[in-house]
Design goal:
Belongs to the LipB family. Keywords: Acyltransferase, Cytoplasm, Transferase. One of its GO terms (cellular component) is cytoplasm. Its EC number is 2.3.1.181. With about 230 residues, the protein is an alpha+beta fold. The chain has one domain (about 5-225): BirA Bifunctional Protein, domain 2 (2-Layer Sandwich). It is about 25% helix and about 30% strand. Strands 1, 2, 3, 4, 8, 9, 10, 11 and 12 form a nine-stranded mixed sheet that branches. A three-stranded mixed sheet has the order 6-5-7, with no helix packed on it. The chain is globular, with a radius of gyration of 16 Å.
């Protein structure tokens, strides 16, 4: 596992980190700070190599600065060149920003085995974030037709998924303690002028590693209760 401040490729053992059981049907890996494209490639490889016996996993990480464009994304939603890479990805959704201090959790799940529909998974992810915020006295909300979690009008968590042969990858990003200024160079999730916030500014005094552990626990709880 990499130190939290060191960004680079996932570990050479295959998928990075040491998988730790978090429930009877789920393992979690803490990858540290990783390169987005290499982590994405590892997710694709993990999903392609799955069998019916493959245990589902959550991958917790942070990323070096990068803008990512989902399948519905439009390049014109990048408003300024900050010298930050822009990657076209295979996830759903529009444009977003990833950087150090933002917790990203990728969900590598067999949806068929869990008898879970994509909309149900989206609801489970959102509820996990809402429950985490509620533990610290912050009210998180859904906005109809705009997946993610909001505090008032400001977005604190974004999500995007890819489903291939009944199995999903990609996941959720939660702003924790990061430089939010790159969001001003995009229309976040395709919405011009959408404000963003982070848990630190909402009075939650947890570092990213603590948030990652807590959110992974909430995600596991949501997934288990929906089986």
């Amino acid at each position: 596992m990499k130190p939290a401040g060191q960004c680079g490729p996932v570990d050479s053992d295959g998928f990075g980190g040491d998988p730790v059981p978090i429930s009877s049907s789920l393992r979690v890996r803490h990858l540290g700070c990783t390169d987005y494209q290499q982590t994405w490639q590892q997710m694709v490889r993990f999903t392609a190599a799955r069998s019916e016996q493959t245990v589902d996993e959550l991958w917790c990480c942070e990323h070096s600065p990068v803008f990512t464009l989902g399948q519905a994304g439009k390049p014109e939603h990048l408003l300024a060149d900050l010298g930050i890479p822009l990657l076209k990805t295979d996830r759903g959704g529009q444009i977003t920003y990833h950087g150090p201090g933002q917790v990203v959790i990728y969900l590598l799940l067999d949806l068929h085995r869990r008898k879970l529909k994509v909309r149900e998974l989206v609801a489970a992810i959102e509820q996990a974030v809402i429950d985490l915020l509620a533990e610290h006295g912050v009210v998180g909300e859904r906005h109809g037709g705009a997946p993610g979690v909001y505090v008032g009008v400001a977005k604190v968590a974004a999500l995007g998924l890819r489903v291939r042969k009944g199995c999903c990858y990609h996941g959720v990003s939660l702003n924790v303690a990061m430089d939010l200024s790159p969001f001003a160079a995009i229309n976040p999730c395709g919405y011009p002028g959408l404000p963003v916030t982070q848990t630190r500014d909402l009075g939650i005094a947890l570092i990213p590693a603590q948030v990652a552990t807590a959110l992974a626990g909430h995600l596991a709880g949501q997934l288990e209760c929906r089986q």
